[in-house]
């Protein structure tokens, strides 16, 4: 069973100017003390077209994690606007929060992000050179995808991977490569979603 | 009979493999396949029972669902107390769930709101041991054990008091084990497997009692489960899938002799599940019918792969009811309500059916009291402690008793509420942590958050713990707290490497002790001075003897015993203890002073060294923390203080030394002529004076396999025939304190009187002599043929022996332990006279009288303190309330004085 389950992610300071940092208050529950740290990442999807515009805004280790309920605030700087294609600067994109243990991703929380101009005039006639103005995260609609991983020691993990159905590929992402989309089960080949809570 | 299929009980169309109704009847659990995982759901029972509740939208139907199992859940079972739920699944795990009371309804993050869990059930233990799918789990009648069986062909017995401790792994099946059932009186557990056998195991030694194969010879094909069941009266065990004349049956196996003469016939396909009604029934008395009392009978439901269910009464030749095509697929599990009138059935097709019977159909259920009377008359299970139901009807005669009982209840309540308060204060999520509300914390979380950099420069956040989990950690801590004390207590055991006499032959016991010693050393536990030291030596039979010059003649020369004498060595070293490090070095004939050879004795204690010289060769040496003694040629024995000061002029022994031994300030010398002396060198008194071993070694080729000297200077001889004698200085007698072949020990069953599991570790000289293994009920098989009265007698006799032996050995700790066990047994079994006698002795005369011979202490324990310890034990049985009162009052009088 999953030793860590995310209880809630609160999006702080939302909406906020584009250049202000992301702040997520994450509470999670751990059923058994973890031997190693959890690794959390915030990934900003620069463009829906290609993964190459994904920006890992920050990654942080969280630990030690004894059994119990815990919370922390994960703050990451705003994405670098120069790495975002101009065509994607305004509109809907996605920010992902992922957590891995022993290099295995077990949860992925996706939020839609709407970048828009506050000024109605600008909305009507956006400038040629996009001016990043306001970011609005659709906090009420997180998309959560959970994956089975091996929580025990490394040897077991190798075994677990070996015993997996080959048709699914040696699927667990041992390094967390940013993946397009919102982590819908169907979109992620080779992953075994535990349960996806599609509620949009 | 009413039949209902609550369609809302489903796993979204996925199969339901198991169903179990909570003992309080308010909820039930289902287990099976979920979306991509195993699923356990807890449902509200009232919407099943009442149509109004079903329609009422305010009454929740689903109380909680748990998706934690990685693969299909094959079995869910409530503990008899209803506190825990155990689930086992294809992920090889058993999870034990407990309700977390402090958290209100919650939702799963990221899910829409309607999936809220009304109740929070939290996994408190994950039991990992099986190497294959877990097929069935079962709680023992008193919730002390949890059994699980698996496709890895084993049955595992878990200690339900101390998860995840494994008590036993039952191996013997050669196929997938698919069903388990405990005998209602707890003597057996039965398992059924794909290997076409049903095996019955004893719970006292976890060995196979019998394996039944005949009714299963014809069984072909496989069923998903083979859930067998034991009747509530214990008489019958009914198997799942069996065959008789190529027809599928449920085989009835009689407890008496495990006979297989009857079966339930009629299903067209294999029987997957059998479940006995928890109640025993008797015929409904109709007005006007003869008052002839009818035999009580049981009721049993049988479910099959043929999708039909049959319900049988053991008094009828035909089924009470058969429901065909109840489901679209095979029946997987059945559960009765505790009142015996309702039944839930689940199926592979993912639906559940509820059957509601009336008392007219089934009969009058016997009360728990009547049921326990049946058990008692049949099995003699000690039920002298009244069940709670009986207790409530007993009149409490005196206010003290009432107070005591109330206090007990209050204590329990207090503990509970304290626990919840603790949890509540520490954990209430919306509440306050360290005097700060969660809101405050959240405001400042970012500022307060501890952030560090790892060696490779990465950010590392220490999360703020906002709640501990009530995962039963508290109990675990309690257990842990207890541990060190146990260790401390057991540290009085022999810890030291034992100097072996030259001619020694290691007995098995000796080996065990050595192993123990080594293990303890590994643990690195602080070592106390050894108070007991086993020494091995053998006695040569008279025939093998050649007369020696200094041989002593005993009064009966024909039986003269001769013990081996250590031969003089050039030099030797002896380790007395390793912590504090202390060793003795002996060098014989080293210095020559004016033509006289001297021997040197050196002693090193924690780096401090002293040495002295003796005029004759040293044969053997011994030491303790208080004294060092050496035996020399010419029968001389010298004793020195720890700093090397001579304490006594040399003692002339009656014959050459054979074994020398020290414990504390006691020195024990065993001579070649088999006489034993013990002196207390500090007080300079003789404890045992030249006592002959003749009486205990006489007659046969017995040898002494081990010698102990207790810290009270009591010598104990373990003989090769398994008997152990100690010498009682005050009576000048050899007393038998232990006998390996003691049949009493093998028949005595007093486990229910043991204070707790850990108490078996009670240590001391008696434990060393008798060995650590619990003798209780070793020979479980024998118990069964033994009538209860005989068993009571043997248990009493055994316990009395133990108390007396501990007393003789002056082992106060063990005396107290066995006295309490004995008293508890007397209370449980209701032996008033003996109990009264004990109390009287412990209490002594309340009013001072000069003629009184009464001693206020026994082996260093104050008797009245012991009595105070006994009182709560006595108070457990209302039958003894008068005795309780008397003692209580008199103790009060004494206290007021």
**What is the number of helical segments of chain A per DSSP (H or I, 4+ residues)?**
2
How many strand elements of chain B? 52
What assembly state would you assign to the polypeptide chains in this entry?
heterodimer
Query: DSSP helix count of chain B?
Result: 18
Distance between the termini of chain A: 27 Å
Q: How can the largest sheet of chain A be summarized?
A: 8 strands, antiparallel
SSE-based structural type of chain A:
mainly beta
Helix content of chain B: 10-25%
Helix residue percentage of chain A: under 10%
Which stretches of chain B are poorly predicted, pLDDT < 50 over at least 5 residues?
382-393, 424-435, 470-559, 773-784
pLDDT < 50 runs, ≥5 residues of chain A: 155-200
Query: Which pair of protein chains has the largest interface, and what are the residue counts?
Result: A-B, 45 and 40 residues
- The helix-and-strand class of chain B reads alpha+beta
Mean pLDDT across all amino acids of chain B = 77
Question: Order of strands across the biggest sheet of chain B?
Answer: 25-24-23-22-29
Gyration radius from CA atoms of chain B, angstroms: 34 Å
Notes on the structure:
The complex is a heterodimer of chains A (200) and B (897). Chain A is mainly beta and 200 residues long. Chain A has two helices and eleven strands. In chain A, the strands form two sheets. In chain A, strands 2, 4, 5, 7, 8, 9, 10 and 11 form an eight-stranded antiparallel sheet that branches. In chain A, a hairpin with a 2-residue loop joins strand 7 and strand 8. Mean pLDDT of chain A is 74; it is low at 155-200. The radius of gyration of chain A is 18 Å and the shape is elongated. Chain B is an alpha+beta fold and 897 residues long. Chain B is 23% helix and 34% strand. Chain B is built from 18 helices and 52 strands. Chain B has a five-stranded antiparallel sheet. A four-stranded antiparallel sheet of chain B has the order 1-28-27-26, with no helix packed on it. In chain B, strands 2-3-4-5 form a four-stranded antiparallel sheet. Chain B is elongated. The N and C termini of chain B lie far apart (69 Å). Chain A binds chain B through residues 1-2, 5-10, 23, 25, 27-29, 31-32, 37, 58-75, 109, 142-144, 148, 192-195, 197, 199, and chain B through 34-37, 67-70, 93, 95, 106, 108-112, 122-123, 126, 427, 429, 442, 445-446, 449, 454, 458-469, 471, 473.
